[in-house]
Amino acid sequence: MEKKRILLVDDEESIQLLYREEFEEEGYIVDSARDGAEALAKFKENPPDLVLLDINMPGMNGIEVLRQMKEMRASLPIILNSAYQEYKQDFGSWASEAYVVKSADMDELKATVRKYIG
């Protein structure tokens, strides 16, 4: 079976390392982007099966990246992953499939990824 590809968009090095390790262990291919512009470039270059997207990033924020990705591929599952609970109420995040608050416990995030791409 072909491995599923996750595009991880986060400007924090520690998150990048942790998530890459955890999701590669689960059998996914993980592509990394540090900001919105890089994320959109990688998105076009190597279309992912799912995007894990931080909201607070330098330059373009996650909500804008989400909007642009959905314009290109409406069916793509995008999980917003933020340290902030309050964005959950933000109308801009409604276009995402899920919103998972960052936590040291990866279980919720892994379960959410599995739900969308198995």
* Count of distinct strands: 5
Q: How many helices in DSSP terms?
A: 4
Low-confidence stretches: none
Shape: globular
Structural category is: alpha/beta
Averaged pLDDT, please?
Answer: 91
Q: Biggest β-sheet, characterized?
A: 5 strands, parallel
CA radius of gyration is 13 Å
Helix proportion:
25-40%
Secondary-structure element series: EHEHEHEEH
What is the spatial order of strands in the main beta sheet? Answer: 2-1-3-4-5
Distance between the termini: 12 Å
**Strand residues, percent:** 15-25%
Explain how this protein is built.
By secondary structure, this protein is of the alpha/beta class. The protein is built from four helices and five strands. The protein has a five-stranded parallel sheet, sandwiched between helices. The longest helix has 13 residues, at 13-25. It is globular. The model has no long low-confidence stretch (mean pLDDT 91).
